[in-house]
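Q: I'm writing a short explainer about REXO5 exonuclease for a general audience and would like to include a description of its predicted shape. Could you first generate the structure from this sequence?
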Amino acid sequence: QEKSSRLSAALFGEDCEISHDQVYELLKYAALGKRHNATQPSWCHIYHQSHLAGVVVIVLHEMSQLHFYKFYLQFKHLRKVFQHRFTLPPSSANFLANLYGEEANLNPQNTARGSTSTSSQCIPNSSDLQWDPIIQKYGGEKRGLTSYTLTLEELKKNDYPMKGSPGCEDYMYTECDQQRTDSSPLFGLDCEMCLTAKGNEVTHVSLVDAQGRCLLNELVKPESRIVNYRTRFSGITRKILLPVKTKLADIQTRLKKMLPHDAVLVGHSLNADLQALQMIHPSVIDTSLLFARNEGRRFKLKFLAKAVLGKEIQCEQKLGHDPAEDARASLELAQFFIEQGPAKVAELNLEMLLTTERLTEVSQNKSALQLQQNTIQRQLNEPPHLSKPRFLDSLQMTGQKPLLLGRQELDSSGLCQSNLSTSNKQILQRALRDVPLSTFSIIQFSLDPEYVAPHLLAGICEKVRIKLTDMLTIYAGPFDESFCLKSVKKEFGRCGPIRSLTVVTETYQPYVCIQYEVLEAAQLAVESLNGAEVAGVCVKVQRPVTGTMLDCDLLIKELELDIENEGVIYVAGLKKSLTETDLQEEFSQLKDLEALFLPRDLQSGKHRSCCFLKFQKSESAVDALEVINGWARKGSRLRSRKALAPGHLWRWIWQMDHSSGKQRGDILCEEKEQPSDSEQELRKKLKRLDQHIRKLYRSLQNNTLCIVLFPGVN
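A: Of course. Here's the predicted structure. Afterward I'll give you a sentence or two in plain language.
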């Protein structure tokens, strides 16, 4: 019988925080096993790694733990299926670059001559140049432009619209069928797009001739309703498009008339522009493919313009990209390549320049600066092709082809070309098709920029804080005018650690407002003390009645069913003098006890009057509840119930509470705002994302390690 792979992670409670290096450690061993010096992770154990069918990493770009718990009920699949959940600390470096193992590029094993420094360029020797991907693709001799136009096979492979291709039936053909020669005219083309109800539609088109003169620079009114202007990239706003009458058909007709019959179009990832224009042109030079890199990676246009032409384009100070500027840059890059030849381009050592540029970007403090200097000094004698293989390089060396699917540009890795036109649905469809063919896949889903805007996130953060505060709070009463506050605090303190207790005097008879430190304590108080006699009177115990609390019972129920809480119970009423060893001894008679977590105050370090017990089987946890509550009926101080908050959530609640400058009473008195349209729309989008993950998860083979990452924005 074939063995099953499985992951065992013994972290519990406050230990549920892991580093980016530990994630990388897990992925490397899962994908490579004992090959390439990969070792078992230090913090968990993978059993029967050789039987793993594959590794799938799903990255929810710019989403964080805040999104998960604000929209907890929407993430129905995630919280019910994934067996382990961990918190990652903020990272100063690019998270995805760490994940890809980009830092491995900075630790070469072998030495040879060549390379560049930040202040000067050194030409690699001829023996090094032979390994350059540009030389390997084109050779070292100069050639005419026809040698660099894409072949039919390359057009098809790179998703260019072609005659007879599915979905291209209604596309306009430029009818530029005349045979190309090395003196055929070059034209630079670039488009900017907005997202409409129909998909990706052109809103700005530019065409430049071989001398860089702008022949066409037109705004275009899309046929469908715009749902996202993507102003950051397109430079388009509602106000700009309002007076525009030009339609896509007008642009198609003008382009067709302007282009000579032997025209060669030049652009950077020109397939996306032609797809958006719904036009077919048989002869193109794609600068993202012309300046070849290893493993199908591509240089960004912005980097090539600076490194090859010495020009700054797509500056952050400008509103969006200028298509005329981008078209001109692509054209000049192609002209440089043709005029100088592959050997001269290879001598620029673009890979090294890119590495240097990245090092400069991350040098934000003295230690980072020292790292940059040391690395560059080492690399002065080491060509990029002889450096220590990155994690993904190692995969390819073992015959595994990693799959990278995403919508956002993966800036620091250089592994994926930006394709903002791709929707999450399209990414899912490709993933369902391609993931089964790959042993290591990274699938990145994204939200549109307006849904990760700082002001929206700040509002969501405050609402989460308010809701958690309300869930940690209970009201009890009514009490007699002369009731004993000390006895009330003692009775309610048996449910768990109290943060604050105040007397409410606005009512006819006094009530008390108690704010606990853990969700289980508040819930235990509602369940065990509502209708009980406290301080000589029968009291009613309830949570605040606010708009945010209308779904509290449902949320409590779902938290209990959370797979993270399976087999975990909460125990309150402990003496603060007891140590972990004392508790292990006290609970030793409980069957299948696996671990004990004794929460501490994260400021003082002191133990709380409660703990969490984790059992190997959920049935054993149910039995333990009966035993402990049986002790309570016989006079024990201990009280117990099912756990609601995993260790990482408990820690996060504490951090959120202490990061606010407001008093908890102030928060309770704030008027609760109604959800904004953006927040309501975000709720729907995250529910849809959860469904995407569910579909992808269900399509995976048995014995697949699947990890979902909420990397956040900082």
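A: For your explainer, you could say: The chain has a mean pLDDT of 81.
Q: Perfect, that's easy to follow.
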